[in-house]
Design brief:
Blueprint lengths: L1 E9 L2 E2 L2 E2 H13 L8 E8 L10 E7 L2 H9 L1 H11 L2 E9 L5
Antiparallel strand pairs: 1-5, 1-6, 2-3, 4-5
């Protein structure tokens, strides 16, 4: 099992839309991925919640069957569409992948 966590900060305005609109657009696109990509065990899309401490605007917490499944996800055409969508709207990204059995 491999866990994959990614978080993004979004621009205040990008691609003709404000931050909230872009975060919602990307969140919806991310939520569609588990239905079309094999090897995903868990996939949680997290948006910043008002009133709570948030450094990032959007994040995913995901679990894959193994490292090969994560690699396949990374290059999957549907994931690549979402990567392009995010890339045009984000200002920063942080990521960590890990094998919980190795901790």
């Amino acid at each position: 099992m491999i866990k994959h966590i990614v978080a993004w900060e979004f621009a205040e305005h990008a691609e003709g839309a404000d931050k909230a609109t872009n975060v919602a657009l990307v969140a919806e696109a991310l939520r569609a991925l588990p239905a079309v990509i094999d090897g995903i065990i868990e996939f949680e899309v997290i948006t910043a919640q008002p009133g709570l401490d948030n450094t990032f605007d959007l994040a995913i917490y995901s679990v894959f069957t193994d490292a090969d499944a994560l690699k396949a996800y990374a290059v999957h055409p549907e994931h690549q569409k979402v990567v392009a969508l995010i890339g045009a709207r984000r200002t920063s990204r942080a990521c960590i992948d890990y094998d919980p059995a190795a901790l």
